[in-house]
Amino acid sequence: xxAVAAMPPKSFEVKPKLDESGTPIGELLEISMGPHxxxxxxxxxxxxxxxxxxxxxxxxxxxxxxxNHEKIGENISYLAxxxxxxxxxxxxxxxxxxxxxxxxxxxxxxxxxxxxxYIRVIMAELTRLQNHTCLIGFFLxxxxxxxTPMMYAFxxxxxxxxxxxxxxxxxxxxxxxxxxxxxxDVNDEWIAQAKKVVSDYSKFLDEFGTFLTxxxxxxxRTQFIGVMSKELAVNASITGPMLRAAGVNYDLRKVDKxxxxxxxxxxxxxxxxxxxxxxxxxRVLEMRESIKxxxxxxxxxxxxxxxxxxxxxxxxxxxxxxxYGRVEGPKGELGFYLIxxxxxxxxxxRVRPPSFVNLTILxxxxxxxxxxxxxxxxxxxxxxxxxxxx
Amino acid sequence: xxxxxxxxxxxGAALPLTKLDILPNECPAGExxxxxxxxxxxxxxxxxxxxxxLKLDYCSNVTGVDWPEAKIKTKVKKKVVVEGxxxxxxxxxxxxxxxHLEVVYHLYSMELKHGPxxxxxxxxxxxxxxxxxxxxxxxxxxxxxxxxxFDLYGVVFDGHPDLRRILMWDEFVGHPMRRxxxxxxxxEYEPTPxxxxxxxxxxxxxxxxxxxxxxxxxx
Lengths: 390, 219
Known about the structure:
Chain A is an alpha+beta fold.
């Protein structure tokens, strides 16, 4: 069955460093960072070759968490796959759910009621808030600010997770969206609570910003490090805050206007230099925009059903065809590709994970920087291994 | 964005292509795709990226699809004259689909903000002729995704800068995403096998089964 033999792995050449006349002066050091390194955000490994402290070669190695998510998806029904999408990027189960539901709706031509669209936007923006908050916490941890910023970030995140828990029953594995709507409606009490969390959030961001945005150490560790050019970012399919930090104005909420994003008044923050600091600032500004969207959505949410009465959850068999659906997840473009052959299971189920593709140019960004900067650069990419390895 | 027919016509005028088909898609969203011959795919990709009207600079998604050899039944309505009366009869025709692997590229334009254009390539078969040109030199974003297809489907991308397994380990044999892949029953040594695991474990390594300890019953 297996006609194509596995290619032998490329070996690293560790050659002595030569001076101009060709005589060796010291040697390069190859180290394997990870998979159980505290700075690698999970089971991720970097094969790094160092010249002194400078990175001269870096290959990301992953797959430790691989469970063939796509194969699982092809062997179960469309609906049964919904909880599995929670486990992709376990920080953002709501946007994962939305991306998958949106793709299936596109495949089967289902409509979503007005109220459900609003709820989806609220959930997605809350997810973005907590993802970016956590990321900044982790990222400062990578820079050596051990503990404190992360604990403040987690304190705020927990308030949002409480909202998720009260509506879906789970903090992280929400399994909340369905094809043609959402699973349960939110009540007025919940909306009042959400309004409070959102209005308090900008105060927290102000506080966080005072400590960090002009912090001398943060500036020294992030400015002009890990610079990514605009051209390379586009060519390497970088998406999300990473791309916008490089100066490309491309946000699917504006480009595709999926759901009801066309109705909200918000801006897309764009960076200038494409360095780590810009990536940090783009995320902070994006959170402010998310708060704007949330305020509008929580104000305008109409009454009505949350599920399309025509949508069938059991015995769901879409007609043959294929579709690619995508949303702007907190980490970038999250896409699902489905081929239906008319059976209850998808014939092909593919996830386009944003952080997997964003890792493509990790080496390009790290070359020439010190190993301690490589850690911070990796932190600024914002990876979640559940999604990278699938 | 211009229609797919128009893109096809312009591609045909710009490049000497022998085969370029538009594949239908019955889904309501109706994203049809362009099937290109592997030999010319690299030039087609370059054209799509650099053309001033298209500027498909962003290769969003690259994925593989496995189509094993299969009998496909299609129902065709036929008019048959039975005893002088014309009748419509449904007839099933069986056609043999040859097995192949398919690679799908979803292309968008970040500059002009349009898309998608779906590009497809097919290998000759699933066994030995599984070579396709790599489009990583055109879109760097395809690098890891093509490696993933090589890993899970076994499509060999010629011209890829670093074609290695990416999700499975290097010594792994087989391509798990193929439809006919059967997982081995023992990936790992099981220190305390039980039930079905015990049956499987006995096939692979000697198993020490401890005698069952019966609780003492006091009289």
